[in-house]
Amino acid sequence: MNSICHYCQGESHKSTNKPCQDYAYAESSEMLSMAIVSDGHGGERYFRSQYGSEMAVKVTKEAIRVFVENMEQSSFTPQRKRSVFEDTPFTAYSSATATEQQEHTNAHKALTWLFSHIITQWNQSIAQHARENDLTEWEQEHVEQKYKDDFLVMRESEDASFEKTYGCTLMAYVQTPAYWFAFHLGDGKCVSMRIADNKLVCEQPIPWDEKCFLNKTTSLCDSNAIEEFRYCYQGNGEFPRAVFLGSDGIDDSYGDGEILNNFYIQLFKLIIRRGKESAEKELKKSLPIISQRGSKDDMSVACVFDDSALNAMHQYLTAYQQNVLEQDMAAIEEKRQRLEQKIADFGNPEKLDKPQLINLEYAKKDLAKAEEQAKRLKKRLASLKGEITKFNNQMQKDILADDEPQDEISLSSES
What pLDDT, on a 0 to 100 scale, did the predictor assign at position 78? Predict the structure, then answer.
C-alpha cells in the first residue's frame, strides 16, 4: 500500500491573506493505511476553522489507531474473537436510509463509538486551543466584533464550547489486511476505484447527505453530529485499488461525474508513471492553478492506493478513459446527425419566415459547436491511444525513460 496527500490555500483567500482552512493527511503500510481530509468552514463565525480542521485530522488519526488496535484485540466482539467487519460484503449506512437491523449490528455500534470518540477528543482539543491562544492580529482585523466578543466571553466560562468557532467537515478512509471502511461528515467527495469483470469501476461508496447543498453542510460543530456520520465498510477480502478523498473545492471545480473521476485517474496514472514523489510535486503545483480556474476555494486531496501490479492498473485506467471518450464521441455524433437532418428539413432558406430563419441559425450554431466538440474529442482520443502505445512499449522494455516529457499527464490542464 502507498499514499499521497496535499492541501493548499484557495485563490479567493489570497487577496485577504485568509489562511488555508483545509487539512489533509495520509499514511500507508501493509498493516494500516489511512487518508483523512477536513475542510474548515469559511464564514466569519467560524474564524478559527483552520485550526479546527487540523485538530480534526490529528484527533481522527489517533482515534483510528485506537479503533484498529481494539479491533485486533477483539474488544468490540469479545465472545466471537473476530472483527466486526469479518466476512461482511460491502455495506453502506446513512441515518436517512438506515434499517433497524443495521443499527443493531456490532459494526454500527463500533463505528458509533469511533465517531463519538472523535467528537469528544475534537471538542477537548479546540477548547484547550481557544483558552490558550488569544485573538491573533489577523482575527482582530478581519473578524466581526460580535464574534470576537462572543469568543472572549466563552473563554471565561469553564462549560463553554467552541464548536462554531472551529467548525469543519471530516472524511476518512481506513484499510487493514482484513477489512476497509470509510466515513464522512459534511461535503466533499470520496471516489474509489476497483476492478470488476476485468474493468475499472469508479464510484462514490459513502452515501451522500442531501443536507449538503450549495453552501450548506453538516459538520463536526452540529449538536447532532454523531447522527450525521455516513459510512461504508467491507470485510470479505475485496478491496479498492485506490480511494481518493477531496474537499468540496475539488468537486466544485470538476463537478460530480466523469470529469471528477478523470482528475483522479490522471493523478493515479501520474503516480504510476512518475512515482509518488513526482506526483506529489505535480499535485502541489496544480492545486493552486485548479483553484484559480475553478472554485477559487481551498483544495485538499488525500489518497490511499494499492502499489502492486501498477502496470496492469495503468491499462485499466486508460481503457476506462478511452471508453468514456468513445461514449462521448458517439453521443456527439448522434447529436450532429440530428442537427444536420434538422437543417435539411428547413429546406430552401428563401422560403422561410423570420421565426424559421432564427431557428435555422440556432441549429447551424449548435451544429458548429457539436463539430468543434467532436474535433476536441478526436484529438483527446488520439492522444490517449498514443499514450497507451507508448506505455506498452515501455512495459516491453521494462524501463521508464528518464527523458519522457514531463507534461504528458497534467492535472491542471482544462478538461
Answer: 55
Residues sharing a CB contact under 8 Å with residue 209, sequence separation 6 or more, in sequence order: 94, 96, 184, 186, 218, 228, 230
Which is nearest to 49 in space by CA: 118, 143, 132?
Answer: 143
Do 189 and 204 touch, CB atoms closer than 8 A?
A: yes
Q: How far apart are CA 294 and CA 249, in angstroms?
A: 8
pLDDT tens for 206-217 read 999 998 888 889
d(C-alpha 6, C-alpha 302), whole Å: 7
Taking the C-alpha atoms of residue 333 and residue 412, their distance in angstroms, rounded to an integer, is 28
Q: Would you say the C-alpha torsion 138, 141, 144, 147 has a positive or negative sign?
A: positive
Residue type, 45: R
Burial class (CB in 10 A: 0-12, 13-18, 19+), 407: exposed
C-alpha grid cell, residue 97: 436510509
d(CA 326, CA 314): 18
87-93-97 Cα angle (round to 5): 135
Instruction: Name the grid cell of 220.
Output: 463536526
Residue type, 165: T
Nearest CA to 227 out of 126, 115, 122, 120 is that of 115
pLDDT digits (tens, 9 = 90+) for 244-286: 999 999 999 999 899 999 999 999 999 999 999 999 999 999 9
State CA 362 to chain mean position distance: 38
Please give the helix or strand (H or E) that residue 4 lies within, else none: strand 2-8
154 C-beta neighbours (distance < 10 Å), count: 17
Q: How many residues are given for the chain?
A: 415
What's 196's DSSP letter? E
Closest to 5 in 3D by CA, of 280, 401, 269, 228: 280
Q: Among residues 212, 200, 144, 205, which one has the least CA distance to residue 180?
A: 205
Residue type, 88: T
User: Which residue matches cell numbers 466560562?
Assistant: 157
Q: Which three cell numbers stand for residue 399?
A: 524501463
303: enclosing H helix or E strand:
strand 299-305
DSSP states of 225-274: HHHH-EEEEE-SS---SEEEEE-HHHHHHH-SSHHHHHHHHHHHHHHHHH
